[in-house]
Specification:
The structure holds 2 protein chains of 2 kinds.
Chain A: H1 2-21, H2 28-32, E1 53-54, E2 68-74, E3 88-90, E4 93-98, E5 102-107, E6 113-118, E7 137-139, E8 142-146, E9 151-156, E10 162-167, E11 175-176, E12 182-184, E13 187-190, E14 193-194, E15 202-207, E16 213-218, E17 224-229, E18 232-238, E19 263-266, E20 271-275, E21 296-300, E22 307-312, E23 328-333, E24 339-346, E25 351-356, E26 362-367, E27 375-378, E28 384-386, E29 407-409, E30 423-424, E31 431-436, E32 438-450, E33 453-464, E34 471-476, E35 483-489, E36 497-500, E37 504-508, E38 513-518, E39 524-529, E40 539-543, E41 546-553, H3 564-570, E42 578-583
Parallel strand pairs in A: 1-36
Antiparallel strand pairs in A: 2-42, 3-4, 4-5, 5-6, 7-8, 8-9, 9-10, 11-14, 12-13, 13-15, 15-16, 16-17, 17-18, 19-20, 20-21, 21-22, 23-24, 24-25, 25-26, 27-28, 29-32, 30-31, 31-34, 32-33, 34-35, 36-37, 37-38, 38-39, 40-41, 41-42
Chain B: H1 10-15, H2 19-38, H3 41-51, H4 59-65, E1 67-73, E2 81-83, E3 86-88, H5 90-102, E4 105-111, H6 117-126, E5 139-144, H7 147-150, E6 164-179, E7 198-201, H8 205-216, E8 222-225, H9 228-236, E9 242-246, H10 247-256, E10 263-264, E11 276-284, H11 288-304, H12 306-312, H13 322-328
Parallel strand pairs in B: 1-4, 1-5, 7-8, 7-9
Antiparallel strand pairs in B: 2-3, 5-11, 6-9, 6-10, 6-11
Helix pairs in contact in B: 2-3, 5-11
Classes of the chains: A mainly beta, B alpha/beta.
């Protein structure tokens, strides 16, 4: 009954939106059908399931070599760093974010700026997680995005004027927002980024029209969730039932599990899928237990924020294997001929997981990187079988002298795959995973200080595991775990992937290239150098009968922040801040 | 989450500050100095603004400008904190004294602590935070004075802290427990905290130490607070029976609450990786002359006993740095 009422309310509000905003407003329906419509891109993930698969075939393996740049747009100022955004397209206008919480509306035909919004960041802000931003959400006549000072900002899509601003968390306590929000049934859903210690992750829903908080769901066991009715907080159950089940002492109060990469949504199960970051404190010996819901995937009810199920990829994480990577819904035909409602994720920890998205049950899992040292495999329930001999970084209590014994862990904490989203092709049935081959040496470091006091830090170095390459774009078969093809890239891959029905897979490289590959064979079919490293995520759409591709360019993000041997590979790459747009001219569309 | 954690200071050495830009900085510094000396400061600041890099505030520039920006941790009693808009605390008073002796105005530069000292030095002393590249302190207080730290090398052999000079140790700091005698007998060993709750500042060495000692058997009694002051309040409220922090912090809280009956403990800290450490200051490595001038002032304060008086003002006991024990011999103790 309750869901019926909500359904009616929702229908009524959607109608009201359509009337008040005119034909060009972005509706729930537009967002729900995003993956099927060629003329727009109105969701992060090119469809709420996050498949990043376009059904457009105009541009394909036979004509991609004729793809041509049509315009490029500079984000301007000196803020040339880390352009990790995915652009959006609606009615011939591109909405794209840049680092330092900036948003641009650009004429998608000419590349001319319509408006620009620079969030005014507070003086002395120290965001935990670099200055990147991964994109906007569109709803009604609004462009909505999250800022480094942990606010949601809604702008008028035609003018860039502020409609509402809501504080999601306290930036002074270490929170920020870098992910693109998700829109589900008129609500803006966001997670939070957070510093290493002292924060508690959460997922929140806001009314898209007013910016009012609808529900909040903490992602650490023991914290109460709330729904808001007429401005009043109503208790909606403690995450995980009660405190202290999988945490010692009062550590759950500051358990980490930041939801910094946002989430996907699957309408068929009516579930939001959010990943969570590592537990705090960093040293796992201080917090025996699984430390729920850190390094997990959560299925969340979009109506009230209840947790439907969870799947923890790295219980008792001791390597900083955040479990934030996107969970992509997809259906496949099982052995008995029945369609399986599955979801897949390629975790920082090096394992690829296929789950039953109706209940979170483990279907299968396999490594998607060449080597994993911290675990010897997965058990029947998908739980890692730890390498108990030399897999876990040492206990500081056992330390003698200034430096603990180094442990080699592979993948490194930057992950077999980091934030950069993979793509799923409905034609090939393969996942295209932007992955990296690197390990880390990690040790306890007594010559360490914090805020004027002696401290016990962790020292670490990230090392490439091969001389010639770090990045590997892989085509993985989710049914068999087989790597169908791979493309080795000298620098680490840090940009998102897109697959199309034209048998193409697109991604960018830190060397500056936008590249296209044959989706079946991995043959490289196209490359164009954008002038700075590509760490953004490409999109494609059609306009006036021609197919377009866009990608942000601008080296940055985590990789250049780290010294050691990886820095040697990337030290000569120049930073930047552009969005590039390409099209296949009409006269180059050859029959396949 | 460490999707992107800013690295230690060597980031810039190895990746961006090659030989070319270093040369550029030297040239521009000279240009800047010429402007300061012959024209007016506004134009020089304008130049630096265009370049979006921190002003090169050498000794001469500091004296010419008439002020000294003293870097201090925000909200960190008794070392440095703000009360009614005025910078207070041991480090603030010391900074004031230094500025006075240099004949310039004291200007507080508040520091929000990052994850490690290396981060704080990068953000506040030599490079600037990437959101506020021009906001640097001329000198940073409360920087542990440790040769091992100063000469630490990363795995590729690069010195990690070569962009700064650590100098002028002015205090030796150590750990301290205060307890509630109504709840506890005098603390003879930390083993009692297997049975009694103890408050610590989150993500500090006392937190790690108590959470891992005795095979983790104290862990469930460790209560986490945002700072030592809050932990002390927790003790006054009866939530914990003791508090562990730095001695000056604990002494300060005891002095602030003289009638509440809390007392300092005399226990040792077996197995704790670092029991005592010297605290000094830091300047950018190109600003050694400023460091020498400040060092001379501070040395006088330490030897003349003024430093001890300065600590006493905040109810804190004072220990002369180990550096002086080495220099002066055992009688300094």
């Amino acid at each position: 009954m309750r869901s019926n009422t909500i359904g009616k309310q929702f229908a009524a509000s959607a109608l009201a939106l359509a009337v008040s905003f005119g034909a060009q407003a972005v509706t729930d329906k537009d967002i729900m059908n995003d993956q099927a419509t060629a003329e727009d891109v109105v969701s992060y993930g090119m469809g709420q399931q996050g498949q990043r698969y376009s059904p457009i075939t105009t541009l394909n393996d036979s004509n991609v070599k004729s793809l041509q740049p049509v315009w490029a747009f500079s984000f301007g100022s000196e803020k040339m760093r880390g352009q990790e955004s995915q652009p959006m397209i609606k009615d011939g206008v591109m909405y794209v974010t840049a680092s330092y919480s900036r948003v641009y509306a650009i004429d998608a035909k000419t590349g001319e700026e319509i408006w620009q919004y620079d969030a005014r960041l507070p003086d002395g802000i120290m965001p935990c997680c670099d200055v990147v931003n991964r994109g906007v959400a569109l709803y009604g006549d609004m462009v909505i995005f999250g800022t480094l000072d942990a606010k949601l900002v809604a702008l008028n899509k035609d003018t860039g004027n502020v409609v509402w601003i809501k504080k999601v968390a306290d930036y002074q306590a270490g929170y920020a927002i870098t992910a693109a929000p998700t829109i589900v049934k008129g609500k803006v859903i966001t997670g939070v980024s957070g510093g290493e210690f002292g924060i508690v992750g959460k997922v929140e829903a806001y009314d898209a029209k007013t910016g009012d908080l609808v529900w909040t769901r903490p992602t650490v066991e023991g914290h109460m969730g709330y729904v808001y009715k007429d401005g009043k907080a109503v208790e909606n159950g403690i995450s995980g039932g009660q405190a202290g089940l999988t945490w010692p002492g009062d550590m759950w109060k500051n358990g980490g599990a930041a939801t910094w990469l946002g989430g996907t949504y699957d309408a068929s199960t009516d579930s939001l899928f959010f990943g969570t970051g590592n537990p705090a404190p960093w040293n796992s010996h201080l917090r025996p237990g699984d430390n729920l819901f850190s390094s997990s995937r959560l299925a969340i009810d979009p109506d009230d924020g209840s947790i439907k199920w969870h799947f923890q990829t790295t219980p008792h994480d001791g390597w900083d294997y955040d479990g934030v990577n996107e969970l992509i819904s997809f259906d496949y035909k099982g052995k008995n001929g029945k369609m399986v409602k599955a979801a897949a994720t390629a975790d920082r920890n090096g394992f690829f997981y296929v789950l039953d998205r109706t209940n979170g049950a483990f279907i299968r899992g396999f490594p998607f990187v060449d080597k994993i040292t911290w675990a010897t495999g997965l058990d029947k329930k998908g739980r890692p079988i730890y390498n108990t001999k030399d897999g876990r970084p040492g206990n500081p209590a056992d330390m003698k002298g200034d430096k603990g014994e180094a442990v080699v862990a592979q993948p490194s904490f930057l992950g077999g795959k980091n934030w950069q989203p993979m793509a799923y092709s409905q034609d090939t049935g393969l996942f295209y995973v932007p992955s990296n081959e690197w390990s880390m040496d990690i040790w306890n470091e007594a010559v360490s200080y914090k805020k004027g006091a002696a401290f016990l830090g962790a020292g670490f170095t990230i090392k490439p595991t091969n001389d010639k390459f770090i990045g590997v774009l892989r085509a993985m078969d989710p049914k068999t775990g087989k790597e169908v093809w791979r493309y080795n890239n000298p620098a680490p891959l840090w940009g998102g992937v897109m697959a199309t029905a034209g048998n193409l897979v697109f991604t960018g490289t830190p060397e500056g290239y936008l590249k296209a590959f044959d989706a079946k064979t991995g043959e490289e079919l196209y490359k164009f150098n954008t002038g700075s490293g590509v760490v953004g995520t490409p999109i494609t759409w059609t306009m006036d009968g021609e197919q377009y591709v866009s990608v942000a360019s601008g080296w940055g993000g985590a990789v250049p922040l780290w010294g050691g041997e990886v820095a040697k590979v990337v030290k000569d790459f120049n930073q930047g801040g552009m969005v590039w747009t390409f099209k296949l001219p009409k006269d180059r569309v050859a029959a396949r | 989450m460490i999707q992107q954690r800013p690295t230690t200071s060597n980031e810039m050495n190895s990746t961006r500050l090659g030989g070319g830009p270093e040369g550029g900085i030297v040239t521009i510094t000279r240009y800047y100095m010429a402007l300061v000396l012959t024209m007016f400061t506004g134009a020089a600041i304008g130049q630096e603004g265009i370049l979006d890099r921190p002003p090169e505030r050498t000794y001469d520039a500091v004296i010419a400008s008439g002020f000294l920006k003293v870097g201090m941790y925000q909200n960190f009693p008794p070392y440095s904190y703000e009360q009614d808009g005025v910078a207070k605390g041991i480090d603030a008073d010391l900074g004031r004294r230094i500025a006075e002796r240099l004949g310039v105005e004291f200007q507080p530069h508040w520091i929000v602590p990052d994850e490690t000292l290396g981060d704080d030095l990068r953000n506040n002393v030599w490079k600037g935070h990437y959101l506020a590249k021009r906001r640097l302190a001329d000198v940073m207080m409360r920087v542990p004075y440790d040769k091992k730290f100063a000469y630490m090398q990363d795995s590729t052999g690069e010195y990690m802290n070569e962009q700064v000079v650590l100098f002028g140790p002015y205090q030796q700091e150590q750990w301290q427990i205060a307890y509630n005698p109504a709840k506890l007998d005098p603390v003879s060993t930390i083993a009692v905290f297997r049975y009694h709750p103890i408050g610590v500042e989150i993500d500090t060495l006392p937190d790690f130490y108590l959470s891992s000692s005795f095979n983790g058997s104290i862990r469930s009694q460790v209560k986490h607070y945002n700072n030592v002051g809050a932990a002390f309040d927790g003790m006054l409220a009866g939530d914990v029976s003791a508090v562990m922090g730095m001695r000056a912090e604990v002494d300060f809280e005891l002095a602030e609450h003289p009638d509440d009956g809390m007392v300092p403990a005399t226990n040792g800290f077996p197995g704790l990786t670092k029991q005592v450490w010297d605290v000094g200051m830091a300047v950018k490595h190109t600003h050694r002359q400023l460091g020498y001038a400040i060092e001379a002032i501070v040395d006088e304060l330490v030897r003349g006993g003024e430093m001890e008086a300065l600590f006493a003002r905040y109810g804190a006991r004072y220990s002369i740095p180990g550096y002086y024990a080495e220099v002066l011999g055992a009688q300094a103790e």
